[in-house]
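From: lab user (bench 3)
To: helpdesk
Subject: output format question, protein + heme C

Hello, I'm new to running complex predictions and I'm not sure whether the block I got back is the full result or only part of it. Here's what I submitted:
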Amino acid sequence: MTKFSMKSVFVGAALVIGSLGVAQVSMASNAGGEHKMEHRNWSFNGMFGTYDVEAMQRGYQIYREVCSSCHALDHMSFRHLGDKGAPFYSSEYPNPNDNPVVKAFAKDWMVPDIDQDSGDVIERPGIPADKFPQIYPNSIAAAASNGGAVPPDLSVITKARTGGADYVYAILTGYHEAPHDFHLSEGMNYNVAFAGNQIAMAAPLSDGLVEYATRTVPGEHGGEPHVITPPEATVDQMASDIVQFLTWAGDPKMQARKNLGFATFLFLFIFSLLLFLTYKQVWKDVEH
Ligand code: HEC
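Helpdesk reply: Thanks, we reran it on our side. This is the complete output you should expect:
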């Protein structure tokens, strides 16, 4: 092989590896028309981005107290809340079925079951292995309760919509008074981020809607416990917190994937370097 072609192999390899690094370019785009959506600087963006655990935990509170009266989480079980990388993971309880926080959350929901003696359909408090329950028995009932529109499943909403996290945030913060010349249909709400600018969901968030609790966490290695003061529950803050939670719900393996991606990148880099040095060594006494 000539020197030139060997060089081009290395240049090619470097280009491939380099492009891995920039493959994280965001897919968010504006679909045109009147939709308004800003590109936000999320903690989970980029190659090294991570979810914000505190924000995800507050996000779960928002889901439970606000969104869950209409929206289901079709693809989630309670135990997922305690998986590695999940909002309520604890290294003390690697099996989320044993995690007391997860157990308490599950118990706080009523889930459908069959009575083992009579065969009747009953409801009982949840356990970690249960799925999050459906909110409505079927989509006709869901539409009937919501002015004809069915509230979509939220467990993969950030995957299901162009713009993902930015879009969901934009919807939640996009409610405004309709302009004078805008014809708003009966029962609809003006929203700058929604296609056509009218949405059946009334603004679900308002300042101070939930009360974020102050928490005391034990100090590490037996140190002083410290108090975590929560942020103020403004619409922006709550929208941002629920988006952290929903983005995790839709992509719970993101962290593991990024870690593996980086390890692979490092491996390829070192491997190419070794290969190059080997090539130099092998050919050093040969005229070529
Ligand atoms: C009172 C019921 C209700 C509550 C509470 C509610 N929603 Fe909705 N939501 C709806 C309905 C109905 C739709 C469908 C709207 C439409 O298609 O016009 C919807 C649609 C959505 C959409 C999808 C927009 C799209 O592109 O299709 C998102 C995202 C959303 N809701 C998020 C939330 C979040 C997050 C919360 C909690 C903070 C929440 N909703 C609370 C009823 C509700």
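A quick orientation on your result: The beta strands are 110-114, 121-125, 189-190, 198-199, 215-217, 226-228. Let us know if anything else is unclear.
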